[in-house]
Design goal:
Organism: Roseovarius nubinhibens (strain ATCC BAA-591 / DSM 15170 / ISM)
Radius of gyration: 19 Å
Number of helices: 9
Largest sheet: 6 strands, mixed
Helix content: 40-55%
CATH architecture of the largest domain: Orthogonal Bundle
Strand order of the largest sheet: 1-2-3-5-4-6
Keywords: ATP-binding, Cytoplasm, DNA damage, DNA recombination, DNA repair, DNA-binding, Helicase, Hydrolase, Nucleotide-binding
Family: Belongs to the RuvA family.
Number of domains: 3
Number of strands: 6
CATH superfamily of the largest domain: 5' to 3' exonuclease, C-terminal subdomain
Order of helices and strands: EEEHEEHHHHHEHHH
InterPro entries: DNA_helicase_Holl-junc_RuvA_I (IPR013849), Hlx-hairpin-Hlx_DNA-bd_motif (IPR003583), NA-bd_OB-fold (IPR012340), RuvA (IPR000085), RuvA_2-like (IPR010994), RuvA_C (IPR011114), RuvA_C_sf (IPR036267)
CATH class of the largest domain: Mainly Alpha
CATH topology of the largest domain: DNA polymerase, domain 1
Domain Helix-hairpin-helix DNA-binding motif class: 65-84, 100-119
Strand content: 5-15%
């Protein structure tokens, strides 16, 4: 990394400089200037502008992509939300319908925050599952040059006998990230798995969340 500013960094990729915009949290997580680093990137293409945005995880990148699809949320607002709440905070706020948490981000008003919750709530389990599955897969180490990396997740097909166990583990991790106690989360996931033993991770998360929802 050659340079760090308030909202972006400059990376040298084999002699070519790339200006990459990042959230506050991502900037804080990067090493000092002069050291090697790697980021997942997303390119915004407009008629008169090309902008790169950098993320430390594929989950952060996916939330940015989804947030950008909501009316009233541009790149600046998306990075503000991610910088204020972090990946886990965004997942928790959207899944629980806590638009007040989203409103804490600079430039995000009440109506926009409510729109984000309404449009993305159904997609939260899939993103949470992505985070759980990637928890043991660290960012690839950069080589002898600073490099902007955009690597798709490997889709290794599990054997049928292990798929349920893997899905349960990922669902449990996602619920733990949302703040549920390990005991109640494990119980809900087990119940959901008993009801639908062949369910994949997103379906298990949705079923477990319904079991954990207050009854009234």
């Amino acid at each position: 990394m050659d340079y760090r500013a308030e909202d972006h960094v400059l990376l040298d990729v084999r002699g070519v400089g790339y200006l990459v915009y990042c959230s506050d949290r991502t900037l804080q997580a990067l090493p000092p200037v002069g050291e090697h680093t790697a980021l997942y990137t997303d390119l915004l293409v407009r008629e008169d502008l090309l902008q790169l945005f950098g993320f430390t995880s594929l989950v952060e990148k996916e939330w940015h992509r989804l947030l950008m699809g909501v009316q009233g949320i541009g790149a600046k607002a998306s990075l503000a939300i991610l910088g204020t709440l972090g990946v886990e905070g965004v997942s928790r706020a959207i899944n629980l319908g806590d638009w007040n948490a989203l409103k804490a981000a600079k430039g995000v008003g009440p109506k926009t925050a409510q729109r984000v919750v309404n449009e993305l709530k159904d997609k939260a389990p899939q993103v949470m599952a992505m985070g759980a599955g990637a928890a043991t897969a660290p960012m690839p180490a950069p080589d002898d040059q600073d490099e902007v990396i955009e690597t798709p997740r490997a889709a290794a097909a599990p054997t049928p006998a292990r798929a349920s166990q893997s899905a349960q583990a990922e669902a449990l991790s996602a619920l733990s990230n949302l703040g549920y106690a390990p005991g109640e989360a494990a119980s809900a996931v087990a119940q959901a798995a008993d009801t639908a033993p062949e369910a994949e991770t997103p379906a298990l998360i949705r079923a477990a969340l319904k079991l954990l929802a207050p009854q009234g």
